[in-house]
Amino acid sequence: MVDKDLLSIQEARALVRAARKAQAEFAQLGQERVDGIIKAIADALYAQAEPLAALAVEETGFGKVQDKKVKNILASEKLYAAIKDMKTIGILSEDKEHKVTEIAVPMGVIAGIIPSTNPTSTTIYKSMIALKAGNAIVFTPHPSARKCIGRTVELIRGVLHDCGVCEDVVSVMSVPTLEGSTELMKIVDLILATGGPGMVKAAYSSGTPALGVGAGNVPAFIERSADIEDAVAKIFASKTFDNGTVCASEQSIVTEAVIADKVKAALVAHGAYFLEGEKLEKVKRVMERSNGAMNPEIVGRDAMYIAAKAGIEVPAGTRLLVSDEKGVGPRYPFSKEKLTALLGFYVVNDWKEACEMCHALLQNGGIGHSLAIHSRNEEVIREFGLKKPVSRLLVNTPSTHGAVGISTSLFPSFTLGCGTVGGSSTSDNVTPLNLMNIRRVAYDLGNAVCAAPAQQGYGQTHGQTHGKTYGQAEAQADAASLDVQAITAMILEQLKKMA
Ligand code: NAD
C-alpha cells in the first residue's frame, strides 16, 4: 500500500512535469489564439455558473447558491470583459523615442492554492488569468472543496481539448495533502496563494517566488455625516452575500456615539439581533475552535443556523447576530475575522477614536486587507485613505462587492493583495499582469558615456569601471583597505603576545 502523502507528492511532480511540457507549446500561441481560448473558457464556465455554485454549497456547506453563482459569473464573464483587451503575449510595446521594447515572458507553471470559501470562482479566475499570461496552472484544492474544484477544472480541460490545446496547462491534484502541496510549491515557478495566514506563510517559506494573499478583518466605519439607512442597507447586502464568506466582507461596525442609537435602530430594522448575556456566551462557545481559529461548522451559515447551533432562540427572520463589543484581541471573538452571519459593534466618541479602533481591529488579523467607510465628509475619507494600513479603502459601498470589483471600478478579482504590511508581496487585486515577467530590450542612446581609456595614473594599471576612469574614490577605497590590513596585522600581533 502506498502512503497518501507519498501519492500526493508523486502526483504533484507528475502534474508539474506534464504542465511544463504543455506550457512550452501553449506559450507559442499568439495573443489572438490565447484570447480565443480564454473567451471559450469564459463562455463555457458562465453557462455552468449555477451548477458549480450548487456543487460548492453542497460539498462545503458554506454560502448560498444564488450568490456563488454571482461569484462564478464575476470570475468568468466579467473577468473576461476586463482582460480581453490586455496585451499579455509577445511584444507589449515598442518605444521608438526611448529605444526600449517590452516583451511579455510567461512565468511558466503556477501553483494555484484555493480556499474553501470561494472554491469554484477562484479556480475559474486563476485559470483564466494564468492562461491569459501564457502560463500553466496546477491547483491544490482545499480538502473540503475537492469535488467542486475538480469539476471546475474538468470543465476547463474540456474546453481546452475542444480548442485543440493540451489540457495539461490546467490540472488539479486529486490527492491533496499538506505534503503534496508543499512539494508542489517547491517545484513550480510561482505560487498564487489565496487563503489564511498559515498557508500564506507556507507559500512564502517555500523558497519559490510567491504571490500570497491572506485574511481580512474588515471594519466598516459609519461616520456621523453618513446616510445611515444607505450605509446599513449596504452592510447587510455585503455581509449576507454568500453568508459572509468573502474575505472582504464586514466583520465589525464602528460608529460614533452621536449617531449610535440611529445606527442600532437601522440595524435592527434590517434584521440584526443584538446578543446579550447567556445568549452571547452560548454563541461565543460555538464560534471558535479550541486554538482560537474560526469554527468551520459555522462559517458561511445564516444567522438562524448559528442560533440553532448555539442553542438559543432569536426572532424569526433574524439575518445577523451582533455583539455590542468593548474589547479587541484574542479574548474577544467578535473582534476577529468571522466569515459568517456574525458582526461586532463598536461605539466611539469621534472619528479620531474610530481611526484607532479600526486600526486595532485590522491589527487583530486583517492588516493590509480592506476597510470600509460610510461618510459624506471628504476630509475624514482622505485622512483614512492616507493613514490606514489597508490596500483598499472602500467608500460608501458594500465592502464585499466593492473589493472584488462589482460595485467599484477595482479589478474583478478573487485574490486581493494585502501589501507588505499584511505579509503579502502585492497590494493589488491580482490580474494577469501580475503573472508575467517583462523582458526589456534597451538600445544604446548614442550619448557616448564610454570615454577613451585614461593615459596615466591608476587608469593605466587598474583599467576602468563603468566607463569612468579609475580615480580618487577608488584610490581612497584602496587606502582604506590598506588601513584594514595594517589593523588586522596589529591585532594578530597582540593576540600572539597574549598567547
Ligand atoms: P485555508 O488557509 O484554510 O486554506 C487555503 C488553502 O491552503 C487550502 O487549499 C489548504 O489546503 C491550503 N493550506 C492551508 N495551510 C497550508 C499549509 N501550511 N501548507 C500548504 N497548504 C496549506 O483558507 P480557507 O479557510 O479555505 O479560506 C479562508 C481564509 O482565506 C480566510 O482567512 C480569508 O480571509 C482568506 N481569503 C483571502 C482572500 C484574499 O483575496 N485576500 C480570498 C479568499 C480567502
Automatic annotation (TrEMBL):
Q: NCBIfam families per the record?
A: EutH_ACDH (TIGR02518)
InterPro entries named among the record's database cross-references: Acetaldehyde_DH_acetylating, Ald_DH/histidinol_DH, Ald_DH_C, Ald_DH_N, Aldehyde_DH_dom
Gene3D superfamilies on file: Aldehyde Dehydrogenase, Chain A, domain 1 (3.40.605.10), Aldehyde Dehydrogenase, Chain A, domain 2 (3.40.309.10)
From what organism does this protein derive?
Answer: Desulfovibrio psychrotolerans
Mind listing the UniProt keywords for this protein, alphabetically?
A: Oxidoreductase
Q: Which SUPFAM superfamilies match?
A: ALDH-like (SSF53720)
Q: What is this protein called?
A: Aldehyde dehydrogenase
- Looking at the record, the residues that make up the Aldehyde dehydrogenase domain are 10-270
**Could you cite one Gene Ontology molecular function of this protein?**
oxidoreductase activity, acting on the aldehyde or oxo group of donors, NAD or NADP as acceptor
* Superkingdom: Bacteria
Annotated PANTHER family: ALDEHYDE DEHYDROGENASE-RELATED (PTHR11699)
